[in-house]
Amino acid sequence: MSLTSVIVETTPFEGQKPGTSGLRKKVKVFMEKHYTENFIQCILNVLGDKVKGSTLIVGGDGRYFSKQAINIIIRLASANGVSKLVIGQLGLLSTPAVSSLIRRHNVLGGIVLTASHNPGGIRHDFGIKYNIENGGPAPDYVSDAVYEESKKITSYKTTPKLETDRLIDILGTYNFNVDGRDFVVEVIDSTADYVGLMKQIFDFPKLRTLIRGTEKRPPFNVLIDSMNGVTGVFVRKIFVEELGASPDNNVCRIVPLDNFGEIHPDPNLTYAKDLVDKVKANTSYDFGVAFDGDGDRNMIIGKNAFFVTPSDSLAVLANNLDCIPYFQKNGVHGFARSMPTAAAVDRVAEKLKKEMFEVPTGWKYFGNLMDAGRLSLCGEESFGTGSDHIREKDGIWAVLAWLSVIEHKNMSVEEILKEHWSIYGRNYFTRYDYEECESDAANQMMEHLENLIASPDLIGKTYTAHGKSYKISKVDNFSYVDPIDKSVAKNQGIRVLFEDGSRVIYRLSGTGSSGATIRIYIDSYEKKDVLADAQDMLKPLVRIALDISQLQKFTGLEKPTVIT
Ligand code: VG1
Ligand code: CO
């Protein structure tokens, strides 16, 4: 039976502006009549003629409202001339899996339904992100165009009679005819493509012997925490079924829940405390890792919950990539990090004579460099690590990379870090997050900082706290020119740089769904004194960062909500 599309009149919604990584709002906002339809139609409008006859990948972290959103996407896509949607079963696909599928199927793009590390459930957040044909997050010019469309949209096209009920529950290919055109929904196994890719990149038999142990070596005891997010289905497949980890002792929270069990699926020391406590309590664990809701972030800890900062994780991997088959085959090109990420990897790049890039916060800024063959490995301090195998950060990839290094070096996590610091010195790093502050207060504080850095007296000024003094050598608001397409990203964070190389950086988050989140990043490099406690070491700089910004005065907040 042929179905007919209809045009539905609508009016614009305010604030459909994608942030650091897609549009994130409270679920109840996405539930408003026409809200989700408008945003999807705006994406399709921006794609223009390319939509006709195209294939798109659709899936996400399975959070509340995903199924409703997928039904809306199916109906709108069919009415707008898309030929085929490839959808993960039950709507489940991790962000890295979407990126991989876009690349392998060579399609126009993908729609990722996630608010990543933000909490889920009816009272919390939902999100929609568009990824382009290279598999990466839409660059700024696409997101800006979507936002412009959202301000003037007057109608959307949908196929209301297309029966979507339970369509994505069962694997299969479903054929429809809309306005005389064929339209196909293919429901695929969420993990198959991604698992295949991981098997090409890593030496699975070797990793299996690490986890299972051999006559000469006891099993390497891991604890993998999916935090009730989408990685659960991938963890079961890869670590339990392929690599022989125990479903009882080596994995936890691996059933995806649409509210993540009411936790923040955010792998850091505050929100992944459960994992940290378990690894501390059971000293037989050699390694622990947690992922975020959509599977692109990872937090790595060693025995006794020895914490690896993401900046160090990136540097260690950079230093050891040649033990991974993918890099043996493809070579290692450049490295990159987001600006606030500590510069540990820069030292590795220098030693290995690789190109090194510093980009604004957000994975979308790595894509062009990877496409141009100049970037193999990159990371962000926000627990993102990844390589050019796809165009998103990739939590499971990061674990497999770490396990490869551990297998190869036959050392513990702590030993690897200590060896690394003894060679390269150590970048002490901490980030203070003040979540859900009042937007006005946060904006005033940023304005104060803008004014401050505009004053010429600041350079050369010395700040002292806890007996340590730091002299300012440079201040700016970070801006970036993409080396490939020359596009410019401005206002990417206020930087206060000190003479000894220490830095304090201030940014407002672009992933929140209400209020504002202030992030302060602090780092400082030590060549010799590498074994101190990071919070002790950075205490003076933290004080100075608070003094310069007058954060307490503006926000009234005494303490950050999260320290990493
Ligand atoms: C945060 C992180 C950033 C990351 C982004 C998306 O952005 O700081 O490094 O790329 O989240 O990650 P912001 O603007 O809130 O600081 V994910 O895993 O939430 O898609
Ligand atoms: Co994420």
TrEMBL record:
Family (UniProt): Belongs to the phosphohexose mutase family.
| One Pfam family per UniProt | PGM1_C_vert_fung
- Record keyword Cytoplasm present: yes
What Gene Ontology cellular component terms go with this record? cytosol
**Phylogenetic lineage:** Eukaryota, Metazoa, Ecdysozoa, Arthropoda, Hexapoda
Protein name listed in UniProt? phosphoglucomutase (alpha-D-glucose-1,6-bisphosphate-dependent)
Task: Look up the EC number in the record and give it.
Answer: 5.4.2.2
Q: What organism does the record attribute this protein to?
A: Phaedon cochleariae (Mustard beetle)
Record's subcellular location = Cytoplasm
* Major localization listed first in the record, in broad terms: cytoplasm
Q: Where is the Alpha-D-phosphohexomutase alpha/beta/alpha domain?
A: 16-156, 214-301, 314-424
Its UniProt entry gives the catalysed reaction(s) as: alpha-D-glucose 1-phosphate = alpha-D-glucose 6-phosphate
